[in-house]
Amino acid sequence: MDAFMQAAIAEAQQGLAEGGIPIGSVLVHQGRIIGRGHNQRVQQGSAIRHGEMDALENAGRLPAQTYREAVLYTTLSPCAMCSGAILLYGIGRVVVGENQTFMGEEKWLRGRGVQVEVFQDESCVTLMRNFIASQPQLWNEDIGE
Fold first, then answer.
1. 72 strand-pairing partners
2. Tell me: the pLDDT tens digits for 2-19?
3. With contact defined as beta carbons under 8 Å apart, do 104 and 77 qualify?
4. pLDDT > 70? residue 1
5. Half-sphere exposure of 38 toward its Cβ, with a 13 Å CA cutoff?
6. For residues 98 and 62, what is the distance between their CA atoms, to the nearest angstrom?
7. What is the DSSP string of the chain?
8. What is the set of active-site residues?
């Protein structure tokens, strides 16, 4: 498996171990992780700290060119909020662990010129299926239902 997706999965597992939602993400520039994060909504009482948003926040303020050259890896298909950040910063490629448990805004991203690649990684699918089955209320809160 891709080392960057492995790093995103490790972030998701860390989030789960902390009592949060197991979604992880890493931002990669020129073959190096420059930001990593996991869903922190539960841990920080945050309305917006999804895995992708946490990775972007942890990358810090960057020049526009860096975002345009970066690749965002995420264990789950990005929601509308995270997809909006991807478009805002001009991230041109997103690698998704899986979209079976949740289909985010991939069509919107592709329609705006973002290259979206989906691995359908079984460990990502299993992680989310188990979480959704054990914590349906928390999952529904996370996706705004």
1. 27, 94
2. 999 999 999 999 999 999
3. yes
4. no
5. 21
6. 28
7. --HHHHHHHHHHHHHHHTTS---EEEEEETTEEEEEEE--HHHHT-SS--HHHHHHHHH-S--HHHHHH-EEEESS---HHHHHHHHHHT--EEEES--SS---SHHHHHHTT-EEEE---HHHHHHHHHHHHH-HHHHHHHTT-
8. 52
How far is Cα 127 from Cα 132, in angstroms, rounded to an integer? 9
Structure tokens at 137: 């209320």
CA dihedral 82, 65, 119, 43 (to 10 degrees): -40
Question: Residue 65: what residue type?
Answer: Q
Distance separating alpha carbons of residues 126 and 17, to the nearest angstrom: 15
Q: What angle do CA 107, 109, 114 make, to 5 degrees?
A: 125
- What is the rounded CA–CA span in Å between residue 121 and residue 13? 14
User: How many other C-beta atoms can be found within 10 angstroms of the C-beta atom of residue 17?
Assistant: 10
Query: pTM for the whole thing?
Result: 0.97
Residue appearing with tokens 């926040």: 57
C-beta of residue 68 within 8 angstroms of C-beta of residue 132: no
Tell me what percent of the residues of the chain surpass a pLDDT of 90: 96
Closest among 17, 23, 3 to 82, alpha carbons compared = 23
